[in-house]
Design goal:
Strand content: 35-45%
Distance between the termini: 136 Å
Structural class: mainly beta
Radius of gyration: 57 Å
Number of helices: 8
Number of strands: 51
Strand order of the largest sheet: 1-7-6-3
């Protein structure tokens, strides 16, 4: 009764603690040895060191030892010779039971450095067990009218050996009525059946005594016998028959005692005592099976606790016998269902005393886990706390290593308490916890860290030199000199930014200073990197990006592009007296070097020789007649136009226009834009922006054409005459070009330049806008009239 549990325990250990190699060389295979069971302890197994390619000296210096499941010592290593020896006599039936082949997995563990070699020892079976019947005598009651060829089942014998050493054949003592036939069961075992060769006659012999022999094929062969007593009973021609030949049921391994497993049922067509059926476990299973059957009801109940890890299924044969001695048989296949009743086990192999903080991927501990349950109940998950800088890495099968996930920081934490939790996946989940303490040794491993990865600073233009514009700050978690931070400006990659003349930094506290006054129009923004280095050895450093935004001040007054104010003689705008109200006299074009609302320009007529005759549009600077001209109006007019930006405080510029009213001058009427009809309606801000942008582009283009034509004509005419419009020399100042799209022209106009020839007479040509979209008829008349005017004025 104690041999079976011992075998089961050994079998569980062999199955679940067969571990593979840690740090095993890629492509290598386990070394396998073989020897017969029952070999005496201390016997030589193999030269393990030589087979694994290790020297004998390595075994001692590297702390070699044999590791077996559960730390049970079955083998021993002679480190002086490198030989593998038996520690004790090994019994294959105890260690492996019916498992074939019987392979014992063990490992050679080298501790310095940690390395595993896997090896297997296969125990071969010897014929050391004889077949044995559980009962000394079998009783068969056979009616005398049984037909020849009828088969009667006989109980089997047991042989703990395997292969050819187990039972191979059954024989019966010589007689004239029966012979024995040997059959194979589904699990590989053989069972005998008694076959009737000659009809029985109770009157001739009411009883027969035979000897059943079980034989194995070992060397030498062994055998076991039992007596078979046959009682010949009177006629009973119907044997009991089960409703099913095979019953299949499942039962959890934690079922309580006396639990109902299954109820079998057989019927007998006979009457009286010959029809009364009694149930019993067949082949002596009463002693070996954990079940009991009610002989009247056929209910099979549990009489002994089940253990899935020991036996996973049972084949129970049930016999139903009537009062006349006839019997029937069925098989009940009982599958034991695993429940999660085993807590995972953790075996620690290697544990280091301390770990340096600058060593990532450092092995802290090596351990193995096991769970004898099956399926999800035996599937395990290892974990540690989430807030620790350690990782659990599966290395080989159920072996794990605890390694550092990243370089440790002793300054933040010098000691870690790691709890390794091994949890299975069963229901309910069972777990095992193992606590270890990891000490961290200190090095200089913390670089200064800025409080921000990038800093954005703002400073208004025209600032005073040495102005404190902001600060950067970095901290170092180290101590002493390793935590003393020094700040510096890093070289910039942009050669157009003279960083050394723009800003400086205090190396002790990170304060930033502007070295000179900044100009928004010249430099709107710039960026650079600041470095912070500690004084450790080696020194560690980090850097951050600093972006400086220069805010615009309204420090640029509007500049008038047309008419030019520095000319030697002012330009006079000619207006025919026949011009109607809304006639375009000229257009004041101005730009502002500032941006945003500081560059939004508005126009205003400050002073006029005759108020009410001319008007200026506030958004585009167009000067138009406000009413019809009359003979009473003066011929010469002087207009003072104010150009003002929208800054705070606002800046302005003024320009003086000279207008000459002429008689008999034929000039087509230039109607005001359609928008003038709705002048009282406020303009949409987006429309104003678009108008300003379009006007700026148009004015620059017109001005370029004017300058080009003026230069060409001046070169032809030689010396300057009194009535000639002056042309500025040299390139136009770059800071007056509006590149921000905030100009003031709202329409595209082209103008002819008011230049005369070289005669010195008061001959002139009117400044005339050219509109390509005028009606065809009016355009033709205008062309003809202009041609006549040029011919009469002497222009070519």
């Amino acid at each position: 009764m104690e041999t079976a549990p011992a075998k089961t325990l050994q079998k569980r250990q062999v199955i679940f603690l067969a571990i593979l190699l840690l740090l095993w060389e890629p492509g290598s295979e386990a070394v396998r040895y073989s020897m017969p069971e029952e070999t005496e302890s201390g016997s030589f197994v193999a030269t393990l060191a030589k087979d694994l390619g290790l020297s004998v000296g390595e075994l001692t210096t590297r702390g070699a030892r044999i590791h077996y499941k559960g730390n049970k010592q079955l083998l021993q290593l002679d480190v002086t010779t490198g030989n593998l020896l038996l520690y004790e006599k090994l019994d294959r039936e105890v260690l492996c039971g019916a498992t074939d082949p019987c392979i014992l997995h063990f490992q050679l563990l080298l501790e310095n450095p940690v390395q595993f070699f896997e090896a297997d020892l296969q125990l071969t079976d010897i014929n050391d067990h004889s077949p044995e019947f559980l009962e000394r005598e079998m009783l068969l009651k056979i009616p005398e009218n049984v037909q020849t060829g009828t088969v009667f089942p006989l109980k089997i014998a047991q042989d703990f050996d395997i292969g050819s050493n187990t039972i191979q054949n059954y024989t019966i003592s010589p007689n004239s009525h029966f012979h024995v036939v040997t059959h194979n069961r589904g699990d590989g075992r053989k069972y005998p059946e008694l076959v009737l060769d000659k009809p029985l006659d109770r009157e001739e012999g009411p009883e027969l005594s035979l000897t059943l022999t079980a034989l194995d094929s070992g060397a030498p062969p062994r055998s076991g016998t039992t007596a078979v007593r046959i009682e010949v009973v009177d006629i009973n021609d119907n044997a009991p028959e089960f409703l099913q030949s095979v019953y299949e049921v499942q039962i959890p391994e934690n079922s309580p005692l006396n639990s109902l497993v299954v109820a079998v049922s057989a019927r007998d067509l006979d009457a009286g005592t010959n029809g009364n059926v009694a149930y019993a476990l067949f082949q002596g299973d009463e002693a070996t099976q954990p079940f009991v059957i009610d002989e009247i009801t056929g209910e099979i109940r549990l009489k002994r606790a089940l253990d899935f890890e020991a036996t996973r299924y049972y084949n129970v044969e049930i016999a139903a016998t009537d009062g006349g001695g006839l019997s029937g048989k069925c098989t009940v296949v009982i599958k034991v269902v695993d429940v999660n009743d085993n807590v995972p086990e953790l075996t620690m192999s290697t544990l280091t005393s301390s770990t340096p903080e600058n060593s990532p991927e450092t092995v802290v501990a090596v351990f193995s886990v096991s769970d004898p349950d099956s399926g999800d109940n035996g599937r395990m998950v290892c974990s540690i706390q989430n807030d620790l800088p350690f990782l659990l890495k599966p290395t080989f099968k159920n072996f794990y290593t605890l390694v550092t996930e990243r370089p440790l920081d002793r300054e933040s934490r010098a000691e870690y308490n790691v709890t390794i939790t091994v949890t299975d996946m069963g229901t309910p989940r069972l777990k095992t916890q193992h606590n270890i303490t990891v000490l961290v040794s200190d090095v200089n491993d913390n670089a200064p860290a800025f409080t921000q990865t990038s800093y954005t600073l703002s400073v208004r233009e025209n600032n005073s030199p040495a102005l404190h514009i902001g600060s950067v700050r970095a901290t170092d978690r180290d101590e002493g000199a390793n935590a003393q931070v020094t700040y510096s400006l890093l070289p910039t990659l942009d050669p157009h930014v003279p960083l050394a003349s723009l800003v400086s930094i205090n190396p002790d506290n990170g304060h930033l200073f502007a070295l000179r006054s900044l100009d928004y129009e010249a430099l709107r923004a710039f960026e650079f990197r600041v470095g912070a280095a500690d004084r450790g050895s080696p020194a560690l450093s980090s850097q951050a990006l600093v972006r400086v935004l220069v805010a615009d001040d309204n420090d640029n007054a509007p500049f008038v592009l047309y008419p030019l104010q520095n000319a030697s003689a002012p330009c006079t705008e000619l207006v025919p007296r026949a011009a109607e109200a809304g006639y375009l006299v000229t257009k004041v074009v101005a730009v502002d070097g500032d941006s945003g609302q500081n560059a939004w320009l508005s126009y205003q007529l400050l002073k006029a020789t005759e108020p009410g005759l001319f008007g200026v549009w506030a958004h585009n600077g167009e000067v138009r007649t406000a009413r019809l001209l009359s003979e009473r109006d003066a011929a010469k007019h002087r207009l003072l136009v104010l150009v003002k930006d929208n800054g705070e405080p606002p800046l302005s510029a003024s320009v003086t226009l000279h207008v000459l009213l002429v008689d008999g001058f034929s000039q087509p009427y230039l109607p005001a834009p359609e928008a003038e009809a709705a002048d009282a309606v406020p303009a949409d801000p987006l429309t104003v922006y678009l108008v300003v942008a379009l006007a700026s582009v148009s004015s620059l283009f017109v001005f370029s054409v004017l300058v080009f034509v003026a230069v060409r004509l001046c070169r032809r005419g030689g010396a300057a005459s009194v009535g000639r419009c002056s042309v500025p020399e040299g390139p136009f100042p770059g800071h007056l070009v509006d590149v921000s799209g905030t100009g003031t022209l709202c329409q595209s106009y082209q103008y002819e330049v008011c230049l005369t020839g070289g005669s010195g007479l008061n001959e002139f040509k009117f400044l005339k806008p050219i509109l390509p979209n005028l009606p065809t008829q009016g355009a033709g008349e205008e062309i003809e009239e202009n041609a006549n005017l040029r011919n009469s004025s002497g222009f070519s």
